Amino acid sequence: MLRMLTVLTALTFATAGSLAGVTPDGELTLVSSAYAAADVAVTVTVAKGAIGGGDAIDKALSKHARTLTRVGGYGDWKPAGSGSMKVGIGATETSKLGGHKLSVKLESITADKAKTTTVVIDSKGKAHKVTSSLGRGGTQVLVVEGADGKSALVYIVTVNY
Amino acid sequence: MTPEERDQLIQRFYDGETIGREAEVAERLLEEDPQARQLLEGLRTLSDSIRIDIAEAVADEDFSGFWGDVQQRLPKGPLTLEQGQDREGVVAQPSRPLEAKRRPWLRWIFAPAALAGAAAAVLLMTGPPATAPEQPLAVADHSIVIDALESAGGNVMVQQEHDDLPAIIWFTESESSEG
């Protein structure tokens, strides 16, 4: 048993050691893997809430409960669609979710930020657009309040790379 | 009461071990019987003569070589039989250090168990349970820089109470198809 633990510990250190490097000025440092991603994975969850609705959140949306409770004035959240897309640099991917058209364009990408332009085309055919830079695994939430003033669609957009 | 019973009673009385009415009987005996009184007096004298100041005795004693003396006096080898000596079918063996019973098959159980444990630890550290409510992941960076906002609707609002929380961007659907 002790021997097994020793081997596991050695493997752990060996793995960490393989990531270690020496800078030109002789300093020992950890070298992060070179950033070579050329696309991002975008996942979208759409929820529909009713104005003045109760605290109820559909079980399928429980993962996003914390976010949805921040969307003030709306409640009784129900799922309205979900999807994912892979977007390359300069490319635009479009998907129809929650009755609206959603498109995501990857403008640029660095090790820390991915810059995207996200557009939601509402039921009247009008565009609502945001260009933003998000960190790794970051999420932005687009709330589109219905023109009837009774409901809202929430697009929870997460960018991973 | 025989002289022997009397002596035993006085002895118990002196030791404070009388039971029931024995103490009364002993006191009466001491009043009436000179031999009983003499016995009690003898016990007291003897006790006084052997009383030693323990602390003084311990202070005077040298214990430095005590354990060495004990070790020297201990018999070497087996305590009951000499090595090789046979007595009633028992043969003394040379002493050997105790060692755990060898169970080589245990490593075949422990090795997978250790690997499974390590894998479970890695899974626990890297991923939340599928049904867990949304939590700010340590790896998720919700910090956002908004470069541009455009909307056909009347109102646009950005809400972010904290960098750890995703930004919420509010749009209002346009009233008409006119842009």
Radius of gyration of chain B (Å): 47 Å
Quaternary state of this entry equals heterodimer
- Uncertain regions of chain B: pLDDT < 50 for 5+ in a row? none
The secondary structure category of chain B is alpha+beta
- List the chains of the largest interface with their residue counts: A-B, 45 and 43 residues
Approximately how much beta-strand content do the residues of chain B carry?
5-15%
User: How far is it from the N-terminal to the C-terminal residue of chain A, by CA?
Assistant: 39 Å
Number of strands of chain B: 5
Number of domains of chain A: 2
The pLDDT mean of chain B sits at: 75
Strand content of the residues of chain A, in percent?
Answer: over 45%
- Major beta sheet summary of chain A: 4 strands, antiparallel
Write the layout of secondary structure elements.
The complex is a heterodimer of chains A (161) and B (179).
Chain A: H1 2-18, E1 20-22, E2 28-30, E3 39-51, H2 65-68, E4 74-88, E5 92-97, E6 100-109, E7 113-121, E8 127-135, E9 139-145, E10 151-160
Antiparallel strand pairs in A: 1-2, 3-4, 3-10, 5-6, 6-7, 7-8, 9-10
Chain B: H1 3-15, H2 22-32, H3 34-50, H4 54-60, H5 66-73, E1 86-87, E2 90-91, H6 106-126, E3 144-151, E4 156-159, E5 167-172
Antiparallel strand pairs in B: 1-2, 4-5
Helix pairs in contact in B: 1-2, 1-3, 2-3
Describe this structure in words.
The complex is a heterodimer of chains A (161) and B (179). Chain A has 161 residues and is mainly β. In chain A, 13% of the residues lie in helices and 53% in strands. In chain A, the strands form three sheets. A four-stranded antiparallel β-sheet of chain A has the order 4-3-10-9, with no helix packed on it. In chain A, strands 5-6-7-8 form a four-stranded antiparallel β-sheet, with no helix packed on it. Chain A starts with a helix and ends with a strand. In chain A, 32% of the residues are buried. Residues 5-34 of chain A have low confidence and may be disordered. Chain B has helices spanning 3-15, 22-32, 34-50, 54-60, 66-73, 106-126, and strands spanning 86-87, 90-91, 144-151, 156-159, 167-172. Chain B has a domain at 3-54. In chain B, helix 1 packs across helix 2, helix 1 (3-15) crosses helix 3 (34-50) and helix 2 packs across helix 3. In chain B, a hairpin with a 2-residue loop joins strand 1 and strand 2. In chain B, the strands form two sheets. Chain B has a two-stranded antiparallel ribbon with strand order 1-2. Chain B has a two-stranded antiparallel ribbon with strand order 4-5. The mean pLDDT of chain B is 75. Chain B contains six helices and five strands, in the order αααααββαβββ. Chain B is an alpha+beta fold. The chains are: A mainly beta (161), B alpha+beta (179). Chain A binds chain B through residues 1, 4-5, 8, 62-67, 70-71, 112-113, 115, 117, 120, 122-147, 156, 158, and chain B through 107, 110-111, 114, 118, 131-135, 137, 139-153, 156, 159, 161, 165-177, 179.
